[in-house]
Amino acid sequence: MKTPTTLEALIQALRCLPGVGPKSAQRMAYHLLQRDQAGAGHLASALVDALTRIRHCNRCNTFTELEVCELCANPARDHRTLCVVETPADLLMMEQTLAYGGLYFVLMGRLSPLDGIGPREIHLDRLLNRAQDGMIEEVILATNFTVEGEATAHYIAESLRSLGIRSSRIARGLPVGGELENVDSGTLAQAMVERRAL
Amino acid sequence: MKTPTTLEALIQALRCLPGVGPKSAQRMAYHLLQRDQAGAGHLASALVDALTRIRHCNRCNTFTELEVCELCANPARDHRTLCVVETPADLLMMEQTLAYGGLYFVLMGRLSPLDGIGPREIHLDRLLNRAQDGMIEEVILATNFTVEGEATAHYIAESLRSLGIRSSRIARGLPVGGELENVDSGTLAQAMVERRAL
Ligand SMILES: [Zn+2]
Ligand SMILES: [Zn+2]
């Protein structure tokens, strides 16, 4: 028997999800068709909504439906400090610590030359412009303590230094090789307090 | 910061996929938005296509885009033998063994009273009608060797017996508790050969 083309296409399309191989894509497709057609419909429209409505904040580059996200537009935040993180998930982790009241810049990645991710892909120009807005007094580099995250922090620190802008690095309270997403709030808060100048 | 509503909706919608919890749904959403918007678009349209085009074969109940699937419509198959499997994935596994040339009936599940899955949900009436078409000489029960799969096989065997229809069970060549999907073709082929009358 030939699997129907539409079903094959769905199984193939599900493989765009990270961590989903051929077997689990097949299981997902069958599950949706057999048990959760309503869920499949919601997922399809949620994807379309996300693709049409979600954009990057003009200031911090995180995902938002606005030109400038609520956090960047909030006058109660400390507009003198800019915390640089790799992903929106890291931004949310940082917010959960309640240890930081400043602004953010989200790289949407980390330097990874082998994957073709260079300064342009992490929006370095926008970050440097952002850091030169006349308000920012300190840039805190909160990329992961992985090899790539460290390299990214040092590259950004050098770029900022050449513009005469101070930067600091959150403390290595995180385990070496650790990622912000998988760390408890307390450790991350401590790492924030113990940040050191670069 | 509030996560944008559209993003929250996408993360929530991704959780309809089996095995996807809050953390991996978030990772999937970020991945699609950051790295694979084309993939997200394909997935959305593949879901819509699947929901609109895929239906159940009138004869074997598997997924198809036709009224009667290609396998059921194939005159070269042995139309005297009906193999009952739980899912379309099991049907494909069976086809891969090349050990079987007859027809199928796909239950789209197994009896599971605690989950509210009874004879109606596994389409027992349609199976019994199908088995009484005048052509079928043997029904082979190839449900899984799990507790529920065994109970399903015995329930179907009893129902068929009361209509005077013979059934057989594939051999327990599969490990106890084993599922067809996770077994190699050789073991499954052997189990098919050694099927016993019920
Ligand atoms: Zn922003
Ligand atoms: Zn069919």
Automatic annotation (TrEMBL), chains A, B:
SUPFAM superfamilies, per the entry: Recombination protein RecR (SSF111304)
Family the entry assigns: Belongs to the RecR family.
Keyword Acetylation carried by entry: no
One Pfam family per UniProt: Toprim_4
Known function: May play a role in DNA repair. It seems to be involved in an RecBC-independent recombinational process of DNA repair. It may act with RecF and RecO.
Higher taxonomy: Bacteria, Pseudomonadati, Pseudomonadota, Betaproteobacteria, Neisseriales
ZnF region ranges: C4-type: 57-72
HAMAP family: RecR (MF_00017)
Organism: Parachitinimonas caeni
Swiss-Prot/TrEMBL keywords: DNA damage, DNA recombination, DNA repair, Metal-binding, Zinc, Zinc-finger
Residue ranges of domain Toprim in the record: 80-175
Protein known as: Recombination protein RecR
